[in-house]
Amino acid sequence: MSKIKKKKICIDADFVLFACAEGSYVKDNQFANEKVKLAPYKERFKAIIHDIVEEAAAEYLGVIKIKGEPKVLLGDPDGNFRYEIYPEYKGNRKASARSDLFYRLRKWALKEYGYVKGVEADDVYGYLVGVKGYLGCSFDKDCLKGIAGSHFDTYHTRRFTIETSITDALNFNYLQTLMGDRVDNIKGLPRVGEATARKLLDEHGWSWDGVLKAYESKGLGKKDMLLNARLVLLTQWTPKKGVKLWKP
Questions:
Q1: Rounded to a whole number, what is the largest CA-CA distance in the chain?
Q2: Is the dihedral of CA 96, 102, 103, 106 positive or negative?
Q3: Residue 146 banded pLDDT, cuts 50, 70, 90
Q4: Would you state the pLDDT for residue 24?
Q5: Sign of CA dihedral 123, 125, 130, 131
Q6: CATH number corresponding to 167-243
Q7: Are 245 and 236 a contacting pair, CB within 8 Å?
Protein backbone atom coordinates (compact mmCIF):
# COMPACT_ATOMS: atom_id res chain seq x y z
CA MET A 1 0.00 0.00 0.00
CA SER A 2 1.42 3.40 -0.97
CA LYS A 3 2.14 5.90 1.78
CA ILE A 4 -0.41 8.68 2.26
CA LYS A 5 1.06 12.07 1.33
CA LYS A 6 0.55 15.02 3.63
CA LYS A 7 -0.18 18.24 1.77
CA LYS A 8 -1.08 21.79 2.58
CA ILE A 9 -4.06 23.17 0.71
CA CYS A 10 -4.70 26.43 -1.13
CA ILE A 11 -7.96 27.75 -2.53
CA ASP A 12 -8.49 30.11 -5.45
CA ALA A 13 -11.09 32.13 -3.56
CA ASP A 14 -12.03 35.13 -5.69
CA PHE A 15 -15.12 33.25 -6.87
CA VAL A 16 -16.25 32.78 -3.25
CA LEU A 17 -16.71 36.54 -2.95
CA PHE A 18 -19.15 36.47 -5.88
CA ALA A 19 -20.92 33.41 -4.50
CA CYS A 20 -21.48 35.19 -1.19
CA ALA A 21 -22.11 38.76 -2.28
CA GLU A 22 -23.53 38.62 -5.80
CA GLY A 23 -24.78 35.11 -6.44
CA SER A 24 -28.23 33.58 -6.01
CA TYR A 25 -27.57 33.57 -2.26
CA VAL A 26 -28.07 37.36 -2.18
CA LYS A 27 -31.53 38.91 -2.56
CA ASP A 28 -31.97 41.63 -5.19
CA ASN A 29 -33.04 44.24 -2.66
CA GLN A 30 -29.67 43.97 -0.93
CA PHE A 31 -27.68 45.04 -4.00
CA ALA A 32 -26.89 48.57 -2.82
CA ASN A 33 -27.99 48.45 0.79
CA GLU A 34 -25.18 49.78 2.97
CA LYS A 35 -27.11 48.83 6.09
CA VAL A 36 -26.99 45.09 5.42
CA LYS A 37 -25.00 43.44 8.19
CA LEU A 38 -21.77 41.89 6.95
CA ALA A 39 -21.45 39.21 9.62
CA PRO A 40 -23.68 36.58 7.92
CA TYR A 41 -21.74 36.95 4.67
CA LYS A 42 -18.42 36.55 6.44
CA GLU A 43 -19.74 33.32 7.92
CA ARG A 44 -20.99 32.24 4.50
CA PHE A 45 -17.53 32.86 3.04
CA LYS A 46 -15.86 30.84 5.78
CA ALA A 47 -18.44 28.07 5.41
CA ILE A 48 -17.77 27.72 1.66
CA ILE A 49 -14.01 27.57 2.33
CA HIS A 50 -14.60 24.91 4.99
CA ASP A 51 -16.82 22.87 2.66
CA ILE A 52 -14.20 22.95 -0.11
CA VAL A 53 -11.55 21.65 2.28
CA GLU A 54 -13.87 18.89 3.51
CA GLU A 55 -14.83 17.82 -0.01
CA ALA A 56 -11.24 17.85 -1.24
CA ALA A 57 -10.16 15.77 1.77
CA ALA A 58 -12.96 13.28 1.10
CA GLU A 59 -12.08 12.97 -2.61
CA TYR A 60 -8.42 12.35 -1.79
CA LEU A 61 -9.15 10.07 1.17
CA GLY A 62 -6.50 7.38 1.42
CA VAL A 63 -4.21 9.25 -0.98
CA ILE A 64 -3.63 12.70 0.51
CA LYS A 65 -3.99 13.95 4.07
CA ILE A 66 -4.50 17.69 4.34
CA LYS A 67 -2.42 19.39 6.99
CA GLY A 68 -2.76 22.84 8.50
CA GLU A 69 -5.19 25.62 7.71
CA PRO A 70 -6.09 26.35 4.07
CA LYS A 71 -4.29 29.16 2.27
CA VAL A 72 -7.07 31.39 0.95
CA LEU A 73 -5.93 33.19 -2.22
CA LEU A 74 -7.31 36.52 -3.41
CA GLY A 75 -6.11 38.72 -6.25
CA ASP A 76 -4.80 42.25 -5.92
CA PRO A 77 -7.92 44.46 -6.34
CA ASP A 78 -5.81 47.24 -7.87
CA GLY A 79 -4.53 45.19 -10.82
CA ASN A 80 -1.58 43.03 -11.76
CA PHE A 81 1.52 42.95 -13.93
CA ARG A 82 -0.38 41.75 -17.01
CA TYR A 83 -2.03 45.15 -17.41
CA GLU A 84 1.43 46.72 -17.46
CA ILE A 85 2.65 44.62 -20.38
CA TYR A 86 -0.73 44.60 -22.15
CA PRO A 87 -3.19 47.37 -21.15
CA GLU A 88 -6.00 45.64 -23.10
CA TYR A 89 -5.82 42.58 -20.83
CA LYS A 90 -9.38 41.55 -19.96
CA GLY A 91 -10.50 44.59 -21.93
CA ASN A 92 -13.36 42.70 -23.57
CA ARG A 93 -15.15 42.22 -20.26
CA LYS A 94 -18.04 44.64 -19.85
CA ALA A 95 -17.58 46.88 -16.84
CA SER A 96 -20.40 46.48 -14.37
CA ALA A 97 -21.07 47.91 -10.95
CA ARG A 98 -20.61 45.50 -8.09
CA SER A 99 -22.83 45.57 -5.07
CA ASP A 100 -21.82 47.60 -2.06
CA LEU A 101 -21.93 44.30 -0.21
CA PHE A 102 -19.34 42.81 -2.58
CA TYR A 103 -16.83 45.59 -1.97
CA ARG A 104 -17.36 45.47 1.79
CA LEU A 105 -16.92 41.72 1.87
CA ARG A 106 -13.83 41.88 -0.34
CA LYS A 107 -12.28 44.55 1.91
CA TRP A 108 -12.82 42.27 4.90
CA ALA A 109 -11.47 39.17 3.11
CA LEU A 110 -8.33 40.94 1.90
CA LYS A 111 -7.60 42.06 5.44
CA GLU A 112 -8.49 38.68 6.93
CA TYR A 113 -6.50 36.49 4.53
CA GLY A 114 -4.05 38.86 2.87
CA TYR A 115 -3.01 39.09 -0.77
CA VAL A 116 0.07 39.63 -2.92
CA LYS A 117 0.37 43.01 -4.62
CA GLY A 118 0.68 43.08 -8.38
CA VAL A 119 -0.47 39.54 -9.13
CA GLU A 120 -3.63 37.49 -9.48
CA ALA A 121 -4.67 34.74 -7.11
CA ASP A 122 -3.85 32.34 -9.96
CA ASP A 123 -0.19 33.39 -9.90
CA VAL A 124 0.17 32.59 -6.21
CA TYR A 125 -1.75 29.36 -6.83
CA GLY A 126 0.77 28.47 -9.53
CA TYR A 127 3.67 28.86 -7.11
CA LEU A 128 2.06 27.02 -4.20
CA VAL A 129 0.83 24.08 -6.28
CA GLY A 130 3.56 23.89 -8.91
CA VAL A 131 6.57 24.61 -6.71
CA LYS A 132 5.61 23.98 -3.08
CA GLY A 133 3.40 20.95 -3.77
CA TYR A 134 0.16 22.23 -2.24
CA LEU A 135 -3.16 20.63 -3.11
CA GLY A 136 -4.88 23.35 -5.14
CA CYS A 137 -8.62 24.01 -5.27
CA SER A 138 -10.01 25.96 -8.22
CA PHE A 139 -12.43 25.70 -11.14
CA ASP A 140 -10.31 27.84 -13.46
CA LYS A 141 -9.06 25.74 -16.37
CA ASP A 142 -5.82 27.76 -16.45
CA CYS A 143 -5.01 26.56 -12.92
CA LEU A 144 -6.30 23.01 -13.29
CA LYS A 145 -4.66 22.31 -16.64
CA GLY A 146 -1.80 24.78 -16.77
CA ILE A 147 -0.15 23.96 -13.43
CA ALA A 148 1.46 20.58 -12.80
CA GLY A 149 0.27 19.10 -9.52
CA SER A 150 -2.74 17.89 -7.54
CA HIS A 151 -6.03 19.77 -7.87
CA PHE A 152 -9.62 19.62 -6.69
CA ASP A 153 -12.05 21.12 -9.20
CA THR A 154 -14.46 23.32 -7.25
CA TYR A 155 -16.98 23.90 -10.05
CA HIS A 156 -20.40 23.00 -8.66
CA THR A 157 -21.25 20.35 -11.29
CA ARG A 158 -17.82 18.68 -11.27
CA ARG A 159 -16.17 18.53 -7.82
CA PHE A 160 -13.53 15.97 -8.76
CA THR A 161 -9.78 15.50 -8.46
CA ILE A 162 -7.27 16.19 -11.21
CA GLU A 163 -3.63 15.17 -11.42
CA THR A 164 -1.87 17.33 -14.01
CA SER A 165 1.53 16.14 -15.20
CA ILE A 166 4.38 18.44 -16.22
CA THR A 167 3.92 17.34 -19.84
CA ASP A 168 0.17 17.99 -19.76
CA ALA A 169 0.71 21.44 -18.23
CA LEU A 170 3.32 22.35 -20.86
CA ASN A 171 1.07 21.17 -23.70
CA PHE A 172 -1.86 23.17 -22.34
CA ASN A 173 0.26 26.33 -22.16
CA TYR A 174 1.57 25.77 -25.71
CA LEU A 175 -2.03 25.56 -26.91
CA GLN A 176 -3.16 28.60 -24.94
CA THR A 177 -0.29 30.69 -26.28
CA LEU A 178 -1.37 29.82 -29.81
CA MET A 179 -5.12 30.08 -29.24
CA GLY A 180 -5.21 32.99 -26.81
CA ASP A 181 -8.09 33.35 -24.38
CA ARG A 182 -11.25 35.28 -25.28
CA VAL A 183 -12.32 35.59 -21.65
CA ASP A 184 -9.12 37.46 -20.78
CA ASN A 185 -8.78 39.21 -24.17
CA ILE A 186 -5.53 37.40 -24.99
CA LYS A 187 -5.39 37.42 -28.77
CA GLY A 188 -3.15 34.49 -29.71
CA LEU A 189 -2.83 33.71 -33.40
CA PRO A 190 -5.65 35.05 -35.61
CA ARG A 191 -8.35 32.53 -36.48
CA VAL A 192 -6.61 29.71 -34.60
CA GLY A 193 -8.79 27.48 -32.43
CA GLU A 194 -7.81 24.33 -30.59
CA ALA A 195 -7.95 22.01 -33.61
CA THR A 196 -5.73 24.29 -35.69
CA ALA A 197 -3.37 24.88 -32.76
CA ARG A 198 -2.91 21.14 -32.37
CA LYS A 199 -2.17 20.76 -36.08
CA LEU A 200 0.42 23.54 -35.90
CA LEU A 201 2.13 21.89 -32.94
CA ASP A 202 2.04 18.48 -34.65
CA GLU A 203 3.75 20.12 -37.61
CA HIS A 204 6.30 22.28 -35.81
CA GLY A 205 6.78 20.33 -32.57
CA TRP A 206 5.21 20.37 -29.12
CA SER A 207 7.75 22.75 -27.59
CA TRP A 208 8.29 26.48 -27.17
CA ASP A 209 10.42 26.35 -30.30
CA GLY A 210 7.44 24.78 -32.07
CA VAL A 211 5.16 27.53 -30.75
CA LEU A 212 7.55 30.17 -32.11
CA LYS A 213 7.70 28.45 -35.51
CA ALA A 214 3.89 28.40 -35.56
CA TYR A 215 3.85 32.16 -34.94
CA GLU A 216 6.39 32.69 -37.71
CA SER A 217 4.30 30.57 -40.08
CA LYS A 218 1.48 33.10 -39.57
CA GLY A 219 3.70 36.12 -40.22
CA LEU A 220 4.27 36.98 -36.55
CA GLY A 221 7.44 36.81 -34.48
CA LYS A 222 9.07 36.19 -31.13
CA LYS A 223 7.81 39.44 -29.62
CA ASP A 224 4.20 38.42 -30.27
CA MET A 225 4.77 34.93 -28.94
CA LEU A 226 6.48 36.19 -25.78
CA LEU A 227 3.67 38.62 -24.98
CA ASN A 228 0.97 35.96 -25.25
CA ALA A 229 2.98 33.40 -23.29
CA ARG A 230 3.57 35.92 -20.50
CA LEU A 231 -0.14 36.67 -20.35
CA VAL A 232 -0.98 32.96 -20.18
CA LEU A 233 1.65 31.47 -17.87
CA LEU A 234 0.98 31.22 -14.12
CA THR A 235 4.59 30.42 -13.20
CA GLN A 236 6.15 33.88 -13.22
CA TRP A 237 5.84 34.84 -9.55
CA THR A 238 7.81 33.69 -6.50
CA PRO A 239 7.90 35.23 -3.00
CA LYS A 240 11.62 36.03 -3.19
CA LYS A 241 11.90 37.42 -6.72
CA GLY A 242 8.39 38.71 -7.27
CA VAL A 243 7.29 38.75 -10.91
CA LYS A 244 9.97 37.63 -13.33
CA LEU A 245 8.60 37.66 -16.87
CA TRP A 246 9.07 34.33 -18.58
CA LYS A 247 11.81 33.79 -21.15
CA PRO A 248 12.19 30.60 -23.20
A1: 61
A2: negative
A3: very high
A4: 54
A5: positive
A6: 1.10.150
A7: yes
